[in-house]
Amino acid sequence: MSTVASTWLDSLLSGHELFPEHRAGCWVNGLRADALERAHALTLPTPRDEDWRFTDLSPLYRLAFRAPVAAGALDAASLAPFDVAEAPLRLTFVDGHFVPRLSRLAEAGGALVLPLAEALESHAELVRAHLGGCVANGGSAFAAINTAYLHDGLFLHAPRGVRVPPVHVLYVSTRADVAVSPRLLVIADAASELVLVEDYVAVHQDTYGVNVVAEVVAGPGARVRHMRLQHDSKNAFHIGTTGVRLDRDAQYGALAVAFGARISRLDLHLTQAGPGARCELDGLALLAGRQLADTHSFIDHAAADGSSRQEHRCIVDDGAHAVFNGRILVREGAQRTNSAQQSRNLLLSDKARVDAKPQLEIFADDVKCAHGATVGQLEAEEVFYLRSRGLSESAARAMLTYAFAAGLVNRIALPSVVARLRETLTARTGNTEIVR
Amino acid sequence: MSTVLQNLIDQPYQHGFVTDIESDTVPKGLSEEVIRQISLKKDEPDWLLEFRLAAYRHWLTLSEPAWPNVKYPPIDYQDIIYYSAPKPKNKLASMDEVDPELRRTFEKLGVPLHEQAALAGVAVDVIFDSVSVTTTYKQKLADVGIVFCSFSEAVREHPELVRRYLGTVVPAADNFYAALNSAVFTDGSFVYIPRGVKCPMELSTYFRINTQESGQFERTLIVAEEGAEVSYLEGCTAPRFDTNQLHAAVVELVALDNAYIKYSTVQNWYAGDANGVGGIYNFVTKRGLCQGVNSRISWTQVETGSAITWKYPSCVLLGENSVGEFYSVALTNHRQQADTGTKMIHVGRNTRSTIVSKGISAGESNNSYRGLVKIGPKAAGARNYSQCDSMLIGDRCGANTFPYIDVQNSTARVEHEATTSKIGEDQLFYFASRGIGNEEAVSMIINGFVKDVFTQLPMEFAVEAGRLLGLKLEGSVG
Q: Kindly report the CA angle at A396 between A392 and A401, in degrees rounded to 5?
C-alpha cells in the first residue's frame, strides 16, 4: 500500500476513539476491536488491484475526515423533497446520527423496525446471529472500517409471513469533511415481504464521505424489494457494500441509482444459497462533470434452479467515467440456472469514458446464461425520427437520453420515488417534453 | 453423459511418438552465457545479441503473471534446455537428402512435405525443434519478390528488414514470456511481402516440439508492404511426453497501407493424459499492427491441444479505416486449461473489429475467454462487434468469459454478446427421431456451433480442423 493510503487509513481509524464503548455488552466492542485490527492489517485498494483498476481513490486518500460527533441542525421542512409518502416508517440519520424528531416510527405490522444501536441491546441474539454474515470474509478494507465504526443504522426484522409496509431510511449530510459509516441489517424470515428505500442525500455540495455496509438475509420464500438511491453531493465520496443472501425460493429485486458523488463505488454481493431463488438487479448511473461511478456486482449461483436478471445502464456526459463489472458465477451443481445480464452504456461526450466487464464463470452444464454489453451514442435514426416530428436536435437528444434511463425507473412500485427520480432525470438530461 | 460421449472424449493423443534424432543442445538453464552460446551457435550479428541480452536483463526484473485463470506447478526456468537443433549434417540439396527418420515422422503426421506439398500447393517451412530443416517453394516465391524463410536465414540474408521490424509490435519488454522469448528464441519464420504483391499461395509452417525438455521459443515476423496480401498457416502437433514443456512463442505482424495479413493456426500439441499429467504449456504472445490506412489483420485459431493455453492474438488498429478480426475455436477436454481471447486496440479513426469466439469445454477442463476492446479517445467512428459463445459438455467442466470493454470516444459503437449452452437432450432426441445416432448428432451440432469460425479457415485447414474436433470429442457427448 502506498504510504499516502496507509497514513490516511491510520488517521481515519484514529477517529475510532471518539466513539464510546458500547453499553450493549462486550460482544459489540469485541466485534469492533477485531474489525479495527483487520482494517489495520488490510491494504486499501489502488488501481493496481484488479477490482479497482479503473477507480483511483487517491483523491479520497488526500482528504482528512472528521468523525461525526453530533448531528447538524436541520428542520423538517428541508426534508420535504426527499419524503417517500408511501412509507409509513422513516428512519432519518443526520450526519450519521439518528434523529427521532425527523423520523416516523409507527407500528410495523408485527415487524421490528428500529435503529441498530437500540437493537444491539434489545435484540442482541438476533443481531449477533446475522451481523456480518453476508459480507464474505468480513469484506474489503472498507467493510472492516465500517465495522470498526459500528455504531448505529437500521435494524429491520420481518418475522415469518409478515408483510411489512415500505420502510424509508434517509441519510442526510449537513456538514463538510465528515465521514459516516452507516450499517443496515435486514432479516426477512420465511414467506415475509418487505420494501426498503435506502436513501443518501445532502443539503450542501461539499466534500464528505459515506462508507456503508448493508446486509439482507432472506429466508425461504421471502420477498424483498430494495431501492438504493445515492444522491450525495457532487463532491462526496461514497463507498457501499451490499451483501444479500437468498434462501430457497426467496426473491430479491433491487434498483441501485448513482446520481451523486465525485467518486462512488458499490460492491453488491448476492448469494443464492437455496434452490429456486430469484433476483432482479437493476442499476442506473447518470454522470456528468468529473464524476466516477463504479458498480461491482457478484451474483453467486450456489444452488440449483435459480434465476437472475440484471440490467445496468449508464449515461455518461462531460469527462465522467462509468465502470461496471458484473460477475456471475454458476457453481457446480447449480443446474438449471437461468441468468441474463445486460450492460448498456450511453456516451454523451468525447471525454466521457466507460469500462464494462461482464464476467461469466460457469461450472454446471445444464444452464442458460447470456450476457451482453453495448457502448455507444444515441441512434442517429432515432434522433432523425423525432426531428421529423418537429423536435429540435437538442430536444430530441434530451428525450432519447431521458427514455434510456426512464425504462428502469418506471419499474419502481413507489410513485413518489418514481416522481423524484424522474424529476432529477428531467433536470439532468434537459428533457422538457415529458408530460408528467 | 452417455458412454458414447465419454469414449469420444477419451481418445488418446494420436500423434504421440518420439523420433530419435541426435540433437545438438546447450546445457540446461538460463544465463547470459547460455544466450551468448545460442547466439554464437547461430552465428548472429552483434545487434541481435544485444537485443537478446537487453531482453534477458529486463526479464530478470519481471515476475511471472498470476492473473490468468489457470493453475500449474511453478516452472523452474533453470531446468529447461533453451537450444536444441538436429545435428548439422551436409547441406541439403533436395528433399531426398532429408533424414529418412525425420521424413517418416512427417509422413506419420501427414505433412505434405514432398510431392504432397506440390499437390497441395503449399510451401512448407518445416521447423523441427528449433532449426529450419528445409524450405520448399522458395524459388516460386522469390520470383515475385516474397521472402519466406527461417528466422535465422532472414537474419543472415535480410538483416536490414529484420532489424527494422523485430520488436516493433511486441517489444522485448512487453511481458514476462515475450521477454523470455526475445532473450532465447532459436528460430521461427520470416515473411516479407513487397509492395503490391499478392502472395500466390498459402504459406504454411509445421511446428513440432521434439527433444524432451526442450522448450521451444519461436519467433515469427510477417511484414506486408503497401497493398500486399498474404495468408499464413501455422499448424502444430507434438509427441507425447510426461514432462511439461514450455512453449513461449512470439508472433509479430506488420501491415502497411492497404495490406492484408491472414494468420491461421491449428494447435494440437500434447495436452497431457486424462489425469492431467504432462502436456505442453503454451504461453504465446501474438500481436498484429495495422500500421497503414485500410490495412487488415485477421487471426483465426483452432486451439485443441496443450495442457495450458495462454494466448491473446491481438490487433493494434493504428491506421485509419483499418480492420482487425479474431475468429477462435478453443476446445478443452480432460484437465486442459485455456485462457485465451484477443485484444482489439482501436487508435485510428473509423477502425473496425470483429471478435467471434467459440469455447467448448468437456471432461474436467476449464476454458476461459478473456478479451479487451479498447477504443482510444481519437478513434472516432470506431466499431466493434464481439460474440463469445460457450458450450459445456458434462457437468465437471468450466466455461468463463472475461470481456473487458474500455471506451473513451462517444462516437464509437461497441457490442458484446455471450451465451452459454449445452447439447440438449431434446436436440439429440430430434436427431434420433430422424435416424441419426448420438455420436453423429453431436458432431453435427458442434460443427454447427463452430461454423462461423471454420468458414474463415483456409480450405486445407478447415478439413483438418474439422477432423481434429471430431477426434478430440469422440466419446464425450450424450
A: 150
For residue A347, report the phi and psi dihedrals to the nearest 5 degrees: -100, 125
- In this complex, do A375 and B393 lie within 8 Å of one another by their Cβ atoms? no
Tell whether A336 is within 8 A of chain B (Cβ): no
Closest-CA residue of chain A to B477: A365
Please identify, among A226, A252, A274, the residue that sits at the C-terminal boundary of a domain. Answer: A274
Q: What is the ipTM of this complex?
A: 0.70
What's residue B246's pLDDT? 81
Q: Using the structure block, give the residue that is written with the C-alpha cell 490495412.
A: B295
Instruction: Tell me how close the Cα of A270 comes to any Cα of chain B, in angstroms.
Output: 19
The grid coordinates of residue A156 equal: 429491520
Does residue A66 sit within a domain? yes
Average confidence (pLDDT) over B239-254: 74
Cell of A48: 493496481
What pTM did the predictor assign? 0.78
A319 to chain B: closest CA residue = B408
Last residue of a domain, one of A274, A292, A308: A274
Q: Report the domain count for chain A.
A: 2
Identify the closest residue of chain B to A355 by CA–CA distance.
B406
Is A416 domain-assigned?
yes
Pair (A261, A396) in one structural domain: no
Confirm whether A352 is domain-assigned: no
* Whether B420 and A368 lie within 8 Å, measured CB to CB: yes
Cell of B373: 476492446
The range of the structural domain enclosing residue A400 comes to 378-436
Which of A352, A357, A368 is closest, CB to CB, to B404? A357
The residue written with cell numbers 532489424 in the block is B163
CA–CA dist A163, A190 (Å, integer):
11
pLDDT, tens digit, for every residue of B12-48?
555 555 555 555 667 778 888 888 888 888 888 889 9
**Which residues of chain A are under the pLDDT cut of 70?**
1-5, 15-26, 136-139, 433-436
Domain-embedded: residue A248: yes
Task: Residue window 304-333, chain A: list those with CB within 8 Å of chain B.
Answer: 332-333
Q: CB of A376 within 8 Å of any CB in chain B?
A: yes
- The secondary structure of chain B, three-state, reads CCHHHHHHHCCCCCCCCCCCCCEEECCECCCHHHHHHHHHHCCCCHHHHHHHHHHHHHHHHCCCCCCCCCCCCCCCCCCCECCEEECCCCCCCCHHHCCHHHHHHHHHHCCCCCHHHHHHCCEEEEEECCEEEEECCHHHHHHCCCEEEEHHHHHHHCHHHHHHHCCCCCCCCCCHHHHHHHHHCCECEEEEECCCCECCCCEEEEEECCCCCECECEEEEEEECCCCEEEEEEEEECCCCCCCEEECCEEEEEECCCCEEEEEEEEECCCCCCCCCCCEEEEEEEEEEECCCCCEEEEEEEECCCCEEEECCEEEECCCCCEEEEEEEEEECCCCEEEECCEEEECCCCCEEEEEEEEEEECCCEEEEEEEEEECCCCCCCEEEEEEEEEEECCCCEEEEEEEEEECCCCCEEEEEEEEEECCHHHHHHHHHCCCCHHHHHHHHHHHHHHHHHCCCCHHHHHHHHHHHHHHHCCCCC
